[in-house]
Amino acid sequence: MNSKEYKGVFVFIEQRECKISKVSLELLGKGRELADNLNEELIAVLIGYNMIDSTKELIYYGADKVFYAENRIFEVYMTEPYAKAMTSIIYDKKPEIVLFGATAIGRDLAPRISARIHTGLTADCTSLEIDEESNNLLMTRPAFGGNILATIVCPDYRPQMSTVRPGVMQKLEKDTRRVGKVEKIDIPISESDMSYKVLEVVKEEKEKINIEEANVLVSGGRGIGKPENFDILKELAKELKGQVSASRAVVDAGWIDKNHQVGQTGKTVRPGLYFACGISGAIQHLAGMEESDFIIAINKDSEAPIFEVADVGIVGDVHAIVPKLISRLQDVKY
Ligand code: FAD
Q1: What is the pTM assigned to this prediction?
Q2: Measured from the CB, is residue 222 less than 6 Å from ligand 1?
């Protein structure tokens, strides 16, 4: 392999129902930094149908160029056509780095592509940097159950590929003055090439819970006492147009579904407002939420570590404080 032939940082842009996912914009933010360090271009790769208007957004969020592969077959995500499209673009354009969100789609697609093009893939990264000496990508991820952070490099093959956890990287401010090029890519594929077809997409109730996209999260821990007490947190979340999330202790206890778990082995979130109710603030929990813009912690133990990251700390019983907050919010509203 001649690594000099490989240029540019590519970000796979994930979309559902033509809506670009937050993680893709976050990856454009990180990708911009990596591309600038390498003095190369940042390219957004969008695979979809009827999405030409969205290509502008990708430039506003940092891309120099958008490769847009459009075909009706790409309307709904399917592994085979997306893998074919992405593999063909990588073969043709020879990027140096390719980033995917560590989402259900990214985790399905990225390993398949890395096997086809015979390169490495570091999954679930929480940090990406360029090594100043070698220009290799340093891909860091938790390893051995989260007890250590491992930094992985892929010096012998190109592109260097990784999936990145949602909520870890920061998207850039939208800049509508930015300009860039859009190149349409033709991927010759049709339904007759497929051995299956999607007849209908039925959304599971579970899928609607996407705490990574919420701007307000009301999170409950063991301190809320019992599963039914999530009801009052749901009420607070409803008042604030937010969602409920949780610590691992209550997920492990079966009080709430794993989809809600915040932390090192759960989801990484970065909402505008994060309530930690009856959560001690273990390091593994903090790893998933400490980048939130504003954190309010309610805990009856004034020494709880959660107060170290909180912008506002309320020492007291969550059962007394949350109902007061709800009633105050209702007073303000009406
Ligand atoms: P506790 O630590 O039991 O804390 C309960 C808190 O509630 C206490 O601070 C207490 O003072 C307070 N409290 C009690 N009653 C009240 C009341 N009435 N009102 C107000 N406050 C009250 N944890 C995660 O959350 N996410 C992860 O992804 C995660 N991954 C992990 C990965 C590994 C490899 C390991 C080893 C651990 C991981 N953990 C994770 C577990 C983590 O170490 C903690 O055990 C867990 O976060 C504790 O949850 P908690 O704060 O709800 O419970």
Answers
A1: 0.66
A2: yes
